[in-house]
Amino acid sequence: MSTAKGSGAHIIVVGAGIVGASAAYFLTQAGHAVTVIDADTPMAGASGASDGAVSVGSKKPGFLMQVAQRARDLYVELQRDGVLSGLFYSRPTYLFARNALEAEVLSLHATDLVDAGVRVDRLSTDELAHRIPGLSRSIVSAVSVPDDGHALGYQVVERMLRLAAPRIIRHAAVRSVRIEHGRAIGVETDAGFMGADAVLIAAGLGSKALLGLGEILRPRKGQIVITDRAADNQAAFDGQLMSASYLAAKRDVSASKRDPISLVIDPLLTGQFLIGGTREDGLGDGETTINYVSGMLRQAVDIYPSLEQRRVIRTFAGVRTATVDGIPIVGAHPHHAALTIATGFEGDGICLGPLMGRLAAEIVMGKPCSLDIGISPLSPSRFSAAVGLAQPSPTAQQR
Ligand SMILES: Cc1cc2nc3c(=O)[nH]c(=O)nc-3n(C[C@H](O)[C@H](O)[C@H](O)COP(=O)(O)OP(=O)(O)OC[C@H]3O[C@@H](n4cnc5c(N)ncnc54)[C@H](O)[C@@H]3O)c2cc1C
């Protein structure tokens, strides 16, 4: 279903998170006029309430691990070309196990990474302790993924929107997509009808109501703790520490249902630590809770005791948009032309965001996919029976 071939078409992008902002960038680069509409403000969704792991090492084996490698490569390219200069940097992820069960998961995961062609260094616990001074000796095994990276979602959104310079409409929730003769011709918003040649829905969890994806998309809350800065404003070590319980949660969602905490300690360049996180399935509120915040801190101090010297300055929660099958939804709407969907990035959207924004833009433009792997796993048509559209309100229909 090609939508906006040639240049100069007017595209509406619904949602100013990392995916919508990246799509807007690639669409304007191709010569299209873009209007980005957000119910709130840019970065108001998960992209502004997340960690910044651009991590292949943490991905579920299979399709997502393959896509993440391309997504990480695109970050490297965009950084090199100046688009994301100063926002992305390469750094290792240190995956670690605290007991025999975690060691088993870690060993399996390391093998899957190697099979997928990802560079992996198996580290002795002495080597890990040398790289991360002050680490507890209770760690039983560790692996480093040297080519991972980091980027802050809100900074990527801000940069993409600045470079794209689309028309941005804030505080205008899109209520429905208007279809005429089987084709999207614009959107009904709180601020009235807006016409377009094509529409891209990249509204995170908001896509659920717009597309009738109630059974397909689920909220998954994540809580995070931020510490104060180090006296020297330097990262304490050179890469993120990620527990094998995080990998278990990624590989098998039921693991986080049993225990929602999967420990990550992220040493930010400011000298702060970001300590996460929870995966609370079905929860879409932005509240942090004493139970989980204290649980995460206890686990973090057990592994990295010098955290005891730090102050907590903030806690926050963000809401991931998860799909029932664990794969994002990116592609043409199965029933209507000129309508594209990009949602369901769960805990991977900062890593995947620019690549998925580019892919969504290609689909909007009816261009061939530039990825060298098949993208059929992303197709909305796998949920063809469910994917629909929100019904316009009677007042919107009369306008
Ligand atoms: C705690 C936490 C930690 C995370 N850590 C990482 C990480 O380390 N690495 C990683 O890769 N990913 C991480 N993620 C996941 C990542 O943040 C998300 O996958 C990504 O931000 C999703 O981007 P998006 O553009 O699809 O959606 P969002 O950022 O949620 O943006 C959607 C936008 O749509 C708008 N919207 C919604 N409904 C409507 C409507 N009806 N009309 C108009 N606008 C609408 C919203 O206001 C919002 O601005 C984390 C997420 C959380 C919550």
Question: Mind sketching the topology for me?
Answer:
Elements: E1 10-14, H1 18-29, E2 33-37, E3 53-54, H2 63-80, E4 88-90, E5 93-97, H3 100-115, E6 121-123, H4 125-131, E7 141-145, E8 149-151, H5 153-164, E9 167-169, E10 174-180, E11 183-189, E12 192-195, E13 198-201, H6 207-211, E14 217-227, E15 240-243, H7 244-251, H8 253-258, E16 261-267, E17 273-278, E18 280-281, H9 290-303, E19 312-323, E20 329-332, E21 339-343, H10 349-365, H11 394-398
Parallel strand pairs: 1-2, 1-13, 2-9, 5-15, 13-21
Antiparallel strand pairs: 3-8, 4-8, 5-7, 6-7, 10-11, 11-12, 14-17, 14-18, 14-19, 15-16, 16-17, 20-21
Helix pairs in contact: 1-5, 1-10, 2-10, 3-7
Bound molecules: flavin-adenine dinucleotide.
Flavin-adenine dinucleotide (FAD) is lined by residues 14-20, 37-40, 44-47, 49-53, 153, 173-174, 202-204, 206, 210, 222, 224, 277, 318-320, 343, 345-351, 353.
What would you note in describing this structure?
There is one protein chain. The protein is of the alpha+beta class. The chain folds into 2 domains: 10-47 and 154-216 and 326-398, 3-Layer(bba) Sandwich (FAD/NAD(P)-binding domain); 92-147 and 218-323, D-Amino Acid Oxidase, subunit A, domain 2 (D-Amino Acid Oxidase, Chain A, domain 2). Helices cover 30% and strands 27% of the residues. The protein has helices at residues 18-29, 63-80, 100-115, 125-131, 153-164, 207-211, 244-251, 253-258, 290-303, 349-365, 394-398, and strands at residues 10-14, 33-37, 53-54, 88-90, 93-97, 121-123, 141-145, 149-151, 167-169, 174-180, 183-189, 192-195, 198-201, 217-227, 240-243, 261-267, 273-278, 280-281, 312-323, 329-332, 339-343. The strands form 4 sheets. Strands 5, 6, 7, 14, 15, 16, 17, 18 and 19 form a 9-stranded mixed β-sheet that branches. Strands 9-2-1-13-21-20 form a 6-stranded mixed β-sheet, with helices on one face. Strands 3-8-4 form a 3-stranded antiparallel β-sheet. Helix 1 packs parallel to helix 5 (153-164), helix 1 (18-29) packs parallel to helix 10 and helix 3 (100-115) packs across helix 7. It is elongated. The chain binds flavin-adenine dinucleotide.
